[in-house]
């Protein structure tokens, strides 16, 4: 049986990856506790989150 929760989580991960990628491309500044967060972590986060989503979908497909 396919688990619907894994599909929901994969979609959420893809949306988070898209948000990080948009931040990286547009160059939106983010400040936390007075410190500006550089853009490069957003690029890494986008790749990491997308990879997790694909991995989850592959596991869901194989089960």
How are the SSEs placed, and which strands pair?
Layout: H1 4-26, E1 30-32, E2 35-37, H2 40-62
Antiparallel strand pairs: 1-2
Helix pairs in contact: 1-2
Q: What does this entry show, briefly?
A:
The protein has 63 residues and is mainly α.
Number of helices: 2
Number of domains: 1
By DSSP, the count of extended strands is 2
C-alpha termini separation: 8 Å
Placed side by side, the strands forming the largest sheet appear as 1-2
Helix content: over 70%
β-strand percent reads 5-15%
Largest sheet: 2 strands, antiparallel
Spatial extent as radius of gyration: 14 Å
N-to-C SSE string, H for helix and E for strand:
HEEH
Oligomer: single chain
Based on helices, strands and strand pairing, what is the structural class? Answer: mainly alpha
Shape: elongated
Query: Average pLDDT, to the nearest integer?
Result: 93
Poorly predicted ranges (pLDDT <50, ≥5 residues)?
A: none
3D architecture notes:
- The protein is mostly helical and 63 residues long.
- The chain has one domain.
- Helices cover 73% and strands 10% of the residues.
- Strands 1-2 form a two-stranded antiparallel ribbon.
- A hairpin with a 2-residue loop joins strand 1 and strand 2.
- The chain starts with a helix and ends with a helix.
- The model has no long low-confidence stretch (mean pLDDT 93).
Characteristic terms for this protein:
63 residues; mainly alpha; two-stranded antiparallel ribbon; 2 strands; 10% strand; elongated
